[in-house]
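WARN no homologs supplied; continuing
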Amino acid sequence: MSKRIGRQTIALPSAPAILSWAAVVGKKEGEGPLGAGFDYVSEDSYFGQESWEKAESQMLRQCFAHRNRRHSPSESKAPMWRLIRPHLASLSAAS
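OK structure emitted
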């Protein structure tokens, strides 16, 4: 169970770990020297969206889509919020 040790600080019961990753970039990054190393390169710097903010949201959706391809079917079906949800629940109980 997580322990609150400050107003905005918690101590987790175990060390955090990176469970998945994806490298999604816009057109300019994809044209650079590291271009071949990214999981997805958008042909449009705005990811087909009308604003930078909407483009950021679309870029995150692409990250999650590529993250799902890296894991087994049972792991990829679990949304990211399920991975952090137990920590959030324990914080609510501690408050």
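The mean pLDDT is 79.
OK
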